């Protein structure tokens, strides 16, 4: 490999500008050529080689797009942006979403004829690995955007194994929901409608008041199954029927390809009964019904107003669960869960919040989201005062919120 290098300015590890001497290297030894170039540019060649080697091997690893990874502090190459979220690595769909990208790479499979269909690409050697891109392409689930990520900032997800057990729901319902979801992923091709490609989804409608675990159910099911969770609302799809048609079709195709769980939160705009007075919303509902017929994945719908549901949805929903308001036993479980997770700057936990205090807290009519918010504010108050989290901190927040505390 012949390499001609020009004089350039580089910065060494200690921050001192280091001029690189002019060289004209022509050698068949890839290793010696690469080494001579890199040695002139950086102070610690060994560590740089090790980093390039590690990043290259991670970038080259053959991962399907369903593998979920976490980007703790990644930045895009053009408009740099820090993001801490879960991502799905999917280079092929990244290219589809960015057709005008300057570097468009066709899959190598397109260039292999049928006679070489069984051909296996040999593993990369160390010097090939050094030349791989430091960036990987994927979808940021929180940002809802296709982005590029530095490979050394992408890490495997540590799924919360105990999340499903902490869901405040009867064991019978929990087993039923999880069984439906897992069976859909494993056997979705085994059931088809009269028309091929229809009826391959599992749709579950969760209804009830706010803060009682509807959204959490979808989240912990995805966590238990170790698959991505894509959350959307009606606003994410646009306001016109044309926007909804285009965006919903693309989104459902993408989520199905990942074997992900799709959550449509507060879906009342789609479920509400159609009327002759609002033709545009009628078109949106019709589009949603049609798209739902051909969806091939798991869909959770949440709503507060099941009584207003359009009749056409009844036959398209496989499981409907009504969530009751929380009773004292359920609230106690939620308080206990958040208290067990509580930590302060000094590493201390729930402090003097004993069983009597729990009984007092459980008697207050709060939903799960309100309990979570009160616990968060109580922890912040404890951190600010420099003391361990205590019952007094929680009572202070409750009083500010206007909650009546009985017995204490």
Give your account of this protein's structure.
The chain is of the alpha/beta class and 408 residues long. The protein folds into four domains: 2-43, no CATH class; 68-156, no CATH class; 171-322, Rossmann fold (3-Layer(aba) Sandwich), CATH 3.40.50; 328-400, Orthogonal Bundle (Helicase, Ruva Protein, domain 3), CATH 1.10.8.60. Helices cover 39% and strands 16% of the residues. It is built from 14 helices and 14 strands. It has helices at 30-41, 45-60, 91-97, 126-129, 171-187, 214-225, 241-257, 268-271, 279-293, 311-314, 328-341, 355-362, 368-385, 391-400; strands at 2-5, 9-11, 17-19, 23-26, 68-74, 83-89, 135-140, 145-150, 155-156, 202-207, 229-232, 261-264, 298-303, 319-322. The strands form four sheets. It has a five-stranded antiparallel β-sheet with strand order 8-7-6-5-9. Strand 5 (68-74) and strand 6 (83-89) form a beta hairpin. Helix 11 packs across helix 12, helix 11 packs parallel to helix 13 (368-385) and helix 13 crosses helix 14. The protein is globular. The protein starts with a strand and ends in an 8-residue tail after the last helix. The model is unreliable at 1-40 and 73-77 (pLDDT under 50). This is AAA+ ATPase domain-containing protein. GO terms for molecular function: ATP binding; ATP hydrolysis activity. Residues 1-33, 54-78 are annotated as: Disordered. It comes from Cordyceps confragosa (Lecanicillium lecanii). Residues 200-327 form the AAA+ ATPase domain.
């Amino acid at each position: 490999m012949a390499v001609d290098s020009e004089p350039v300015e580089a910065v060494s590890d200690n921050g001192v500008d280091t001029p690189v001497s002019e060289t004209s290297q022509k050698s068949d030894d890839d290793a010696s050529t690469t080494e001579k170039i890199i040695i002139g540019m950086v102070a610690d060649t060994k560590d740089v080689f090790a980093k390039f080697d590690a990043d290259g091997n991670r970038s080259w690893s053959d991962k399907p797009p369903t593998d979920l990874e976490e980007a703790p502090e990644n930045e895009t190459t053009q408009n740099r942006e820090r993001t801490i979220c879960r991502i799905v690595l999917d280079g092929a769909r990244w290219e589809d979403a960015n057709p005008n990208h300057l570097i468009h790479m066709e899959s190598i499979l397109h260039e292999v004829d049928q006679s070489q269909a069984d051909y296996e690409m040999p593993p990369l050697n160390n010097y090939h690995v050094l030349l791989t891109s430091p960036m990987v392409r994927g979808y940021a689930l929180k940002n809802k955007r296709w982005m590029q990520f530095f490979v050394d900032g992408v890490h495997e997800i540590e799924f919360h194994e105990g999340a499903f057990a902490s869901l405040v729901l009867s064991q019978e319902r929990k087993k039923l929901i999880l069984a439906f979801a897992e069976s859909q992923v494993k056997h979705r091709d085994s059931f088809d409608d009269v028309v091929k490609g229809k009826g391959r989804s599992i749709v579950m409608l969760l209804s009830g008041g706010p803060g009682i675990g509807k959204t959490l159910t979808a989240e912990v099911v995805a966590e238990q199954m170790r698959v991505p969770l894509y959350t959307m609302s009606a606003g994410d799809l646009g306001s016109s029927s044309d926007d909804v048609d285009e965006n919903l079709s693309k989104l459902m195709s993408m989520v199905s390809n990942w074997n992900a769980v799709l959550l449509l939160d507060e879906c009342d705009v789609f479920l509400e009964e159609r009327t002759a007075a609002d033709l545009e919303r009628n078109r949106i509902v019709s589009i949603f019904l049609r798209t739902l017929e051909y969806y091939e994945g798991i869909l959770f719908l949440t709503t507060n107003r099941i009584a207003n549901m359009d009749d056409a949805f009844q036959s398209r929903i496989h499981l409907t669960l009504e969530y009751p308001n929380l009773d004292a036993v359920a609230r106690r479980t939620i308080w206990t869960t958040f208290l067990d997770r509580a930590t302060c700057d000094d590493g201390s936990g729930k402090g003097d919040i004993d069983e009597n205090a729990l009984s007092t807290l459980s008697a207050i009519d709060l939903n799960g989201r309100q309990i979570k918010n009160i616990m968060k504010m109580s922890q912040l108050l404890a951190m600010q005062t420099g003391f361990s989290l205590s019952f007094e901190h929680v009572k202070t927040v409750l009083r500010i919120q206007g909650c009546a505390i009985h017995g204490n």
